Amino acid sequence: MDSEITIRTAQLTDLEELSELYEKLMREQMAFDRFAQILDSADFQKLVFSYLTSGKSKFFLAEKNREILGFIRLSIYSGAKLERVDTLKPELVWKKFYPRRILRKILSWLLNRIEKSIDSSLIFRQLRVGYIADMFIKQEARERGVGNLLTNHAFNWFRERKVSMIYLQALSENHPGVSFWKRQGFSIFRVFMRREI
Ligand SMILES: CC(C)(COP(=O)(O)OP(=O)(O)OC[C@H]1O[C@@H](n2cnc3c(N)ncnc32)[C@H](O)[C@@H]1OP(=O)(O)O)[C@@H](O)C(=O)NCCC(=O)NCCS
Questions:
Q1: Residue 104 lies in a domain
Q2: Structural domains of the chain, count
Q3: Is residue 41 part of a domain?
Q4: Which atom number of ligand 1 is nearest to the Cα of residue 144?
Q5: Which atom of ligand 1 lies closest to the CA of 132?
Q6: Three-state secondary-structure class, residue 75
Q7: Residue among 25, 135, 180, 186 whose CB has most ligand 1 atoms within 8 A, to mutate
Q8: Which of 3, 66, 156, 180 sits most deeply, having the most CB atoms within 10 A of its CB?
Q9: pLDDT (tens digit, 0 to 9) for every residue of the chain, 197 residues total?
Q10: What region, left, alpha or beta, does residue 15 occupy, with left being phi > 0 and alpha being psi -120 to 50 degrees?
Q11: Is 6 within 8 Å of 62 (Cβ atoms)?
Q12: 84 within domain boundaries
């Protein structure tokens, strides 16, 4: 493992670089799912901006000599609800009060309520769990321990927040990804299936 690799929280100033990495992640993942398609209108900057500013996920970056090698994005769920895990940048707060945003917030609140009532029979709903939403290491930086480093950092971050169970999802065709997670101690506990009709 390279000793000069450091880990830090992502900032808004990383938006452009992170968006490029996200696009690479999505394009790479597409190869593992023949039904996946990236929309022509896909706006990765907008997506990453929302991740960075919603306060509901935590981004850690691994870097070497100021070059970003990869990232991991984490969140915490209490029952079916996403917890706030990062602070919103104060200068962005007022922008949240556009009428359209308010309407969107009301709609998403309503949808959340509906979703929760559907989910209310889940026996897990009171558990507080960690979730690894996304992880990506640049192709040229792989198999040098960067993934290990970011994952250990994530585990510590979760432990400090009293999270004792972590979930994640991977595409079943992503054999390198699944092997990586198994090396990190994860095991498959549920199989998500589909068919075309
Ligand atoms: C999966 C990924 C995160 C691994 O990152 P990495 O920095 O190359 O991993 P590391 O070098 O830290 O390897 C950690 C362990 O996983 C194993 N591993 C890494 N890549 C592997 C691969 N392609 N196949 C099998 N095992 C692999 C390593 O051998 C190592 O095992 P060890 O701890 O016993 O030595 C990286 O390949 C990646 O970003 N892939 C594309 C995105 C992706 O698939 N994300 C995760 C799935 S949701």
A1: no
A2: 1
A3: yes
A4: 11
A5: 48
A6: strand
A7: 180
A8: 180
A9: 556 999 999 999 999 999 999 999 999 999 999 999 888 888 999 999 999 999 999 999 999 999 999 999 999 998 778 888 988 665 555 555 567 778 888 888 887 776 665 555 454 555 789 999 999 999 999 999 999 999 999 999 999 999 999 999 999 999 999 999 999 999 999 999 999 99
A10: alpha
A11: yes
A12: yes
In a domain, 102, yes or no: no
Q: Write the CATH number for 144.
A: 3.40.630.30
Chain Cα centroid distance, residue 106: 24
pTM: 0.85
Among 66, 88, 46, which residue's Cα sits nearest to residue 5? 66
Per residue, the 3-state secondary structure of 122-177, as one string, reads CCCCCCEEEEEEEEEECHHHCCCCHHHHHHHHHHHHHHHCCCCCEEECCCCCCHHH
pLDDT recorded at residue 79 = 75
Give the pLDDT confidence score for residue 87 in this predicted structure.
80
Residues in the chain: 197
Is the Cβ atom of 145 under 6 angstroms away from ligand 1?
A: yes
Q: Virtual CA dihedral for 157, 32, 70, 89, nearest 10 degrees? A: -60
**What residue numbers bound the domain in which 135 lies?**
6-92+128-183
- 118 burial via Cβ count (<10 Å: 0-12, 13-18, 19+): exposed
